[in-house]
Amino acid sequence: MVGTSLIGGILGAQLLLGTSQSAFVRLLPYLLLLATLLFTFSGPITHRLRGRTAEERPGFSRRNLVAIAIAQFVIAIYGGYFGGGIGILMLATLALMGMNDINEMNGLKALLTACINGSAMLTFIVRGAVFWPAAILMIVGTIIGGYGGAYYARKIDQKWIRLFVMIVGFALTIYFFVQQL
């Protein structure tokens, strides 16, 4: 998943630098809606997927890992291109993979997001597309938010974190649908 995240992040950044954003912006609310619905209903979906295989840990079968790697590659391209909602998409994918612990999911999501954003960032730097004053401010905010978020996420009941993710997902979806009106 790390390799697909790195390569996908580079491809997404290249796509952003070489194309108009208008078509992607039109698709964004639909992508966010799909991801939020997948995350919201990940429990029943995962239960059904587990029922289809006889393996002890169905989320880690070879076929499922290939499917997850492909999904992560698509998410990474999307993340390198735009980035909004990749956390929700990855949480949905990890839940479909069979992961249930939101803290473990967040840890893996953070690693994969760092790979996607890092490879996209290097692409933007190499291509000379970075406005450094804004970038430095965003880096500081990301570091503070990342450590603060991880600290508090471990102290809050997982059901509240899941509810928060769903509320944010649906709110972003509605926001982007309204923006298109």
Walkthrough of the structure:
The protein is mostly helical. It has eight helices and no strands. The chain is globular and about 45 Å long.
Q: What is the percentage of strand-forming residues?
A: under 5%
Order of helices and strands: HHHHHHHH
Rg from C-alpha positions? 17 Å
Which secondary-structure class do the elements indicate? mainly alpha
Global outline: globular
Largest sheet: none
Number of separate strands: 0
- Structure annotation, total helices: 8
| Distance between the amino and carboxyl termini | 37 Å
Average pLDDT, all residues: 85
Low confidence ranges: 52-59
Percent helix among the residues?
over 70%
Layout of strands and helices, then pairs:
Layout: H1 2-18, H2 22-40, H3 42-51, H4 62-81, H5 86-97, H6 102-126, H7 132-153, H8 158-179
